[in-house]
Amino acid sequence: MHAKHEFCCVIHFAGLKAVGESCIIPLTYYQVNVCGSINLFLVMKEHNVKRLVFSSSSTVYGEPQFLPITESHPVGQNLLNGYAKSKYYIEGILQDLCNSDKEWFVIILRYFNPVGAHSSGTLGEDPNGIPNNLMPYVAHVAVGNIPNLNVFGNDYNTIDGTGVRDYLHIMDLAEGHVSALEKMLKSNDSGAIAINLGTGNGYSVLQVINMFSEVSKRKIKYEIVGRRSGDCGSSYCDASFAKEYLGWEAKRTLKEMCEDTWRWQSLYPQGFSTKT
């Protein structure tokens, strides 16, 4: 078959990503994430395209052994859910691929909790059914779609007992991919290089709720329930290597993450299907 276009690099975003769901349907996560990735890599190899930016996750670090988490933190130990394991397995496959063929160059981006929306309010997160992640769940409570939020555990060793995460604005994340792509296209590097993408700051669930309430001027009703399977207490990164290697760093604040999410949710209270 004649190739209509030429490709020099692939950015691999595709996959299932809900921590809780991956504990319920792990086979689906392995089938989509791991098998789907292998199929992609085979097609890339067939067409001699050997440069890849891969969306991985901070969950490959498991229960943090130290904070902030650097790229030298052990991976694959005490992984808490099927999602984390699927990302870890894919990273291992990519390492093996790069070891077997020195023409491959892979930048593995380990995301820390992307949230937010485009500042225009026209592009945001529209999950199917009940949201699996904190920020869209809070937004749906604020707009009145869901009566209250379940906070999974308030007995962690954190500032207020609720889980702490490194929340990253989705636009900072997008810019991180552009930086990775630019590095890839002008560099003669090879092998697989893992890079944290985060702000380096941790915020608790209650801090996010309070900030969203302040921004939206809506009371966010919540209920403390038991810990959720697959969660750890705190996770935030050292993002200094991303600045050193890619020239990238996160710029947007938690307040901006909440403001942009609320702008999107206000314009599209029922998601893309309806608009006020």
List the helices and strands and how they pair.
Blueprint: E1 10-12, H1 19-24, H2 26-46, E2 51-57, H3 82-100, E3 105-111, E4 114-115, H4 134-143, E5 149-152, E6 164-165, E7 168-169, H5 170-186, E8 191-197, E9 203-204, H6 205-216, E10 222-225, E11 234-235, H7 240-246, H8 254-267
Parallel strand pairs: 1-2, 2-3, 3-8, 4-7, 5-10, 6-11
Antiparallel strand pairs: 6-9
Helix pairs in contact: 2-3, 4-6, 4-8, 6-8
GO molecular function: UDP-glucose 4-epimerase activity; UDP-N-acetylglucosamine 4-epimerase activity
Pathway: Carbohydrate metabolism; galactose metabolism
Enzyme class: isomerase
Share of helical residues: 25-40%
**Continuous helix count:** 8
Q: In percent terms, what proportion of residues is strand? A: 15-25%
Largest β sheet strand count, sense and barrel closure: 4 strands, parallel
Q: Based on CA inertia axes, which overall geometry fits? A: globular
The tally of structural domains comes to 1
Task: Say what oligomer this is.
Answer: single chain
The mean pLDDT is 94
Could you name the CATH homologous superfamily? NAD(P)-binding Rossmann-like Domain
The largest sheet has its strands arranged as 1-2-3-8
Order of helices and strands: EHHEHEEHEEEHEEHEEHH
Number of strands: 11
Q: Catalogue the unreliable spans.
A: none
Q: Which second-level CATH architecture applies? A: 3-Layer(aba) Sandwich
CATH class: Alpha Beta
- CATH fold title: Rossmann fold
**Any idea what the radius of gyration is?**
19 Å
Enzyme class: isomerase
Keywords: Carbohydrate metabolism, Galactose metabolism, Isomerase, NAD
Catalytic activity: UDP-alpha-D-glucose = UDP-alpha-D-galactose; UDP-N-acetyl-alpha-D-glucosamine = UDP-N-acetyl-alpha-D-galactosamine
Cofactor: NAD(+)
